[in-house]
Design a protein that fits this description.
- The protein is α/β, with parallel strands linked by helices.
- Helix content is 36%, strand content 21%.
- Helix 1 crosses helix 4, helix 4 packs across helix 5 and helix 7 packs parallel to helix 8.
- The chain binds adenosine-5'-diphosphate (ADP) and magnesium ion (MG).
- Adenosine-5'-diphosphate binds next to helix 2.
Length: 295
């Protein structure tokens, strides 16, 4: 990867963006990727060791309780897996954390000072909560490197314009991310040509370029091959300590890899926490067995 290649990428990005402004829908998944960040306001306070605190959260849809007195706490640097049958409220929980859905009642804090229920979606993203949706959302006509560069340049801490030259440090950051998401060999390739798993990694890389303190991942390995799933587990394990991670997943083998026998798993059922503990503990819990087998 050379600075020239990066500068060429920046030009193509600008062209792409001006085209996109004139009505071209170019992102996969029909959503726009996380660009256009502005400077982060008051940062989160993690001195109490809590990354995320949810208490007594209730969400109703036409009288149906999607979340029912949900309480959950994630420690700073923790990697937490959340499992539960379809309809348990896992995605709705992420919608509440990211401001997409407002609960009818409850408390939601990011760190000990940021009241998530008072912030809008974009403000929550700026405060440092990243979210990976199930479907990959990358700019398909752009290269892998250009996608990452776009995220870097949208970084609230960098605030450089798209056409500006990258600093040596930025080049190093991009390079390190390419290695981290195992796409070094695909840097110049159009994102649309990647495999499903590679697109997911690219999007995770784009989220990581924004350095979110908390990253929410909704079924990240759905549709991946076994090998891709294993590599994803390695990637997530490599992030622990640097970021707090909440991973919603159905794939028990993947959850096993992530928890490595000791990390906490939360089981959601009918909008509340049914059980919490190691994977072995929750799998031996008769209520959990009933919920899974009863379906
Ligand atoms: N916008 C909505 N309107 C009505 N019902 C919804 C909406 N979003 C989710 N639900 C319902 O809330 C419940 C929880 O959904 P969801 O959070 O998607 O579950 P999970 O992700 O655990 O499968 C489901 O019964 C779902 O049908
Ligand atoms: Mg879901």
């Amino acid at each position: 990867m050379t600075p020239d290649l990066l500068e060429a990428g920046a030009r193509r990005l600008q062209e792409h963006q001006s085209r996109a402004q004139h009505g071209g829908q170019t992102e996969s998944g029909g959503r726009s990727a996380g660009i256009g960040r502005v400077h982060r306001g008051q940062g989160p306070d993690f001195t109490h060791g809590v990354a995320l605190y949810l208490d007594d959260i209730n969400v109703s849809f036409d009288g149906f309780k999607a979340l029912n007195a949900l309480s959950l706490s994630i420690a700073v640097g923790e990697l937490r897996c959340i499992i539960g049958p379809n309809g348990a409220g896992k995605t709705t929980m992420m919608d509440v954390i990211t401001g997409k859905t407002r609960p009818d009642a409850g408390t939601a804090f990011f760190g000990s000072t940021i009241d998530l229920l008072k912030l809008r979606e974009n403000e929550i993203a700026q405060a440092g909560i990243g979210r990976k949706f199930q479907k990959p959302t990358v700019y398909e006509p752009l290269s892998v490197l250009e996608n990452l560069e776009l995220s870097l340049k949208a970084d609230r801490r960098v605030r450089s314009s798209l056409g500006s030259r990258l600093s040596g440090e930025q080049v190093d950051t991009l390079d390190a991310m390419l290695s981290r998401i195992q796409l070094r060999g695909e840097a110049g390739r159009e994102a649309g040509l990647l495999s499903h798993g590679q697109k997911q990694w690219l999007e995770i890389g784009m989220l990581l370029m924004q350095d979110p303190a908390l990253l929410l991942l909704d079924e990240p390995v759905a549709g991946m091959t076994d090998e891709e799933t294993e590599r994803t587990a390695e990637l997530f394990l490599s992030l622990q300590g640097e970021h707090s991670l909440v991973v919603v997943e159905h794939d028990m083998h993947f959850v096993e890899q992530l928890t490595q026998g000791h990390r906490t798993v939360t089981v959601l059922h009918e909008g509340s926490v049914l059980a919490e503990g190691t994977l072995a503990t929750v799998q031996a819990n008769s209520h959990v067995v009933e919920v899974y087998l009863g379906r």
